[in-house]
Specification:
Number of helices: 8
Distance between the termini: 24 Å
CATH topology: Arp2/3 complex 21 kDa subunit ARPC3
Number of domains: 1
Order of helices and strands: HHEEHHHHHH
Helix content: 55-70%
Number of strands: 2
Radius of gyration: 18 Å
Structural class: mainly alpha
CATH architecture: Orthogonal Bundle
Oligomer: single chain
Shape: globular
Length: 215
């Protein structure tokens, strides 16, 4: 067996093992992914000309669904959010509690469920371009929308600040776009490299995807 075949077989074995884990094993793995997300949430880089730091939090979220698959990707993010709401200081900036960013945590769960579903069900989704498209949708729709709704509610009702939709979008979207695109590209590249192109979960496009696959 050549090197490429060994690598492909290893990727298949890992994902098949993850799929067949017992319930306690999946819970332990989900907790591990939640801990990794909390760790990466503290990683910060600043892009030139942008005062908003590039953190590893959403990068971990995008890969959680790929690593854990449908349901368990979302469960890992629910553990992350639940423990953070309960007081574990592992949100970005070592924060915890139900704060103005609570909607983004809800979005993390939705994004991980979404990406895990496609990763497990469609071999085609594991190509770079397919995964990038899915991750951009997950980031800018599934994470941003509940995050913005929550933040708008927090500013207007809880904090007593009158904030228009335009002002909310202006402060909450443009500064984050460059960093989020970079993270999505990086996460899609990693997902493309680590996911098997063999069916391990009864994928619906087994035996068909190679005829119309993307890079």
């Amino acid at each position: 067996m050549d090197v490429a075949a060994r690598i492909n077989q290893t990727k298949y074995n890992v994902f098949r093992w993850r799929h067949e884990l017992s319930l306690p094993g999946k819970l332990a793995l989900a907790l591990g992914v939640a801990c990794l997300t909390g760790l990466l949430a503290q990683v910060r880089f600043y892009l030139p000309g942008n005062p908003v730091p590039l953190t590893g939090q959403t990068f971990a979220v995008l890969l959680a669904g790929v690593a854990m698959g449908k349901r368990w990707g979302g469960i890992s993010m629910a553990i992350y959010g639940g423990l953070g709401f309960a007081g574990v200081p592992w949100f970005s900036g070592l924060k915890s509690g139900v704060v103005a960013g609570g909607g983004y945590i809800i979005g993390f769960v939705l994004a991980a469920l979404f990406l895990g579903y496609f990763t497990d069900k469609y071999i085609r989704s594991r190509s770079f371009l397919s995964m990038l498209a899915l991750m951009l949708f997950a980031n800018f729709v599934l994470i941003y929308v509940p995050g913005l709704v929550w933040r708008g509610w927090w500013l207007n009702l809880a904090a007593g600040e009158s904030t228009s939709v335009a002002a909310l979008l202006g402060m909450s979207v443009p500064p984050y776009i460059p960093g989020d695109i970079i993270k999505a590209v990086a996460a899609a590249g990693i997902a493309r490299g680590v996911t098997p192109k063999l069916a391990y979960n009864g994928e619906v496009d087994k035996g068909k995807w190679a005829k119309w696959r993307l890079p």
